[in-house]
Structure formats: C-alpha cells, structure tokens
C-alpha cells in the first residue's frame, strides 16, 4: 500500500505545478480585432506579420475583417466592432473635427505613399501630364485619400481638375475598374494589382505613379480610440512590434519571397503578378520602413487635404498621432 503512495504524491505535485503553467500560457493569448479598409497587396507587411507568425510571437491572435471603405471602417472602430482600424489618416481628422470625446489616434504607419497609378486606355509614348488636358479622367471617391492625392498631383503639374479635364468621381470604389474596362474614361486612377492586370491583359497602360509624385504621406495607418490605447497599452505595443518586424522582413527579403508569404491572402491573383506588384511598391518605398508617422508626413497630409478643399481644420501632429509606442518598440 505504502509503495505507491510516494509515486502518486509525486505525480500529484507535478500536475499541480504543470496545470497552472498551462493555464497561464493560454491566458497570454489575446485576441485583437482588426478592420482593414480593403484587401490589398499595398498592405503586404500586415499579411507578412500574419503569415510569418509575428503576431503569435507576441501572444496575439488577430481577427482580421475587411470592411470595404473608409466610412465603414471608421464606423466599425467607433462602434466597438473593431479594436484597431487600418485606414487612411484623414479619417481620424474627420472624426476629430466632428467633436469626438474619444479621438482616434494614429499609432503605427503601414504605408507612406499613395498606392495608385495613372493608367491610360491607349499606349502613350513619352507621357507628360499635360496630355491629360481635355481628356476624361476616371478618379476616386470625393474626400478619400486617392482622390485628394490625385487632384494634388494634377495641380502640381498645372492641371485644374475641374476645368482642364472631364473629372468623373461619382462611381463607387468597387466599380471604378469595371467602369474603365467597359469603356468609361481615357485615363483612370487604379490601385494594384488591378493596374498591372489591366496592363497585362492589354486593357490599359501604366504611365505614372501618384505615389512617386505626391511624396511621403501617412496613407494607411493603424489607429485606435484613445480609450482603447489607454486601457490596452501592452497589447498595442505587442501589435506595433509585430508590424515593425514585418516591415523589416519585407525590405530584407526578395519580392518573390514576400509574394510567396502573402499568397494565401490573394488566392485569386497569380504569384507572378503579386511579385511584380510587391517589386513596384518596394521600388518606390510605398511600404513604410518603420511604424513612425512623423510631423513632415502629417503636414504633407494636411496640405493635400487643404488643396482638395477637404481639410475641416488644421490639427497638430501630437493631437492625433502617438509616436512613443513605435519609438519604444524600435528601441
């Protein structure tokens, strides 16, 4: 009888020690809900962070939802349908200008240039921007970053969007490419991979990059309500660290390796096309190399909004931007 008491007691002690440890491990996994404005290769570092397990390394489980549009994405965030939003920084300005008591704070930048390209229906030799004068230009939604950047670049090249061309901007974002393919417009402003696919199929020809022309701007950032950041500082830090790892990974690996990593998130797009798009975005440094949204970029954003007549009020960088989190994880 006594012979089995000691082994049994030892087993009991081991179980008492192991079970709490296992429970602690489970408690460390925290779920974070992300609302992305659209599914795009433009956001490659985010998908790299998911595919390479950088979020898991930080003890985070990411629940990613595509909310299709800036308004819907911000609504999801403000109504607590999401913890973090990936969307253009201009949306945080719109919310603040409406007098929000719980402002939306930009804490980690993902892309630092516009991600659209100017696509011509006809092949153009030696393209110059003044060739757009008198043409029909199929632009993006009024008030959104693509359209504001588009108008900013046109004005930069001496083109009045309202008088020098026929500007169409009343077509829903999801239908712009279809409208161009069906014959609307001489030029169109398109995101990748649609621009490259159209060029490959002979439906259009990429003649210029709005990202190269407009300079650095906080085009897409991760943001959260101030209250969420205050109550979940550790989670926000872990999330930002995972994004920073992914940003470094993207620039330290080949476009082919990046394409292979994010392929599961773009099953309907050929691997070669994904690689070509990644290469193009890396070449013009559209992917931010770190999560810091600096003052110069914030100023450029408001200049672009002001030129488009969409800036409700000028807002200081430190009012809606938190760089301490990014600086902390980088150090």
Produce the secondary structure layout:
Layout: H1 5-27, E1 30-36, H2 44-51, H3 54-57, E2 60-66, H4 70-78, E3 84-87, H5 90-97, E4 104-111, E5 116-120, E6 136-138, H6 145-156, E7 166-168, H7 176-181, E8 187-191, H8 194-201, E9 205-209, H9 210-214, E10 220-225, H10 226-231, H11 233-252, H12 255-262, H13 271-283, H14 295-307, H15 317-320, H16 324-330
Organism: Mesobacillus foraminis
Protein name: NitT/TauT family transport system substrate-binding protein
Main location: periplasm
Structure description:
The protein is an alpha/beta fold and 331 residues long. It has 2 domains: 30-113 and 217-330, 3-Layer(aba) Sandwich (D-Maltodextrin-Binding Protein, domain 2); 116-214, D-Maltodextrin-Binding Protein, domain 2 (3-Layer(aba) Sandwich), CATH 3.40.190.10. Helix content is 47%, strand content 16%. The protein has helices spanning 5-27, 44-51, 54-57, 70-78, 90-97, 145-156, 176-181, 194-201, 210-214, 226-231, 233-252, 255-262, 271-283, 295-307, 317-320, 324-330; strands at 30-36, 60-66, 84-87, 104-111, 116-120, 136-138, 166-168, 187-191, 205-209, 220-225. It has a 5-stranded mixed β-sheet, sandwiched between helices. It has a 5-stranded mixed β-sheet with strand order 7-6-8-5-9, sandwiched between helices. Helix 2 packs across helix 11 (233-252) and helix 11 (233-252) packs across helix 16. Residues 11-19 and 21-26 have low confidence and may be disordered. Keywords: Signal. It is found in: Periplasm. This is NitT/TauT family transport system substrate-binding protein. Pfam families: NMT1_2 (PF13379).
